[in-house]
Amino acid sequence: GLAEGFLDAAKMIVGKVPDVFAFGLCPQEDPENFKERVYAEIDADPKQNILVLADILCGTPFNSMIEKLREPRIDMVIGVNLPMLLELLMHREEKFETLAEYAKQRGLQGIVTKKIFMDGLKETEEEDEHTIYPD
Q1: CB atoms within 10 A of CB 1
Q2: Rounded Cα gap, residues 15 and 18, in angstroms
Q3: What is the pLDDT of residues 33-63, one digit of tens each?
């Protein structure tokens, strides 16, 4: 349910999103059956560009896509997180060729440790101390 969970969470924030599909691998599902389900959707419109978001490198969803990655209309980003998905949904109209890199950058920006957060908060507080606010 990870894929569906990500999409459900994103829909709560950005609303309904057409032409976005979640394919989760069910615990008892045969990997070949999973691959067939995904390929049926991908092959339904052979002219449609597709950006695939996968959770982990060399997991079944990633492995299922390997032969499709030869197609220029298909790109993939591994290591999906919710900030990445949200940004992609809000910028769907960007050039397809740039979406994967954009997703990677946004996904990395969404990974923050306590130290990084606190250091950023401290910098903001220091900037506020030096800012003169009009009465």
Answers
A1: 11
A2: 10
A3: 999 999 999 999 999 999 999 999 999 999 9
Within 8 A by CB and 6+ apart from 91, the residues are: 99, 102
Q: What pTM did the predictor assign? A: 0.82
**β-pairing verdict for 74-78 and 50-54:** parallel
Span 54-95, pLDDT tens digits: 999 999 999 999 999 999 999 999 999 999 999 999 988 889
Question: From the DSSP assignment, how many helices (H) and strands (E) are in the chain?
Answer: 6, 2
List C-alpha distances in Å: 28 to 22, 34, 50, 56: 18, 11, 27, 19
Q: Cβ neighbours of residue 79 under 8 Å, at least 6 residues apart?
A: 54, 55, 56, 57, 107
- Tokens in use for 76? 């993939």
For 47, other C-beta atoms within 10 Å of its C-beta total 5
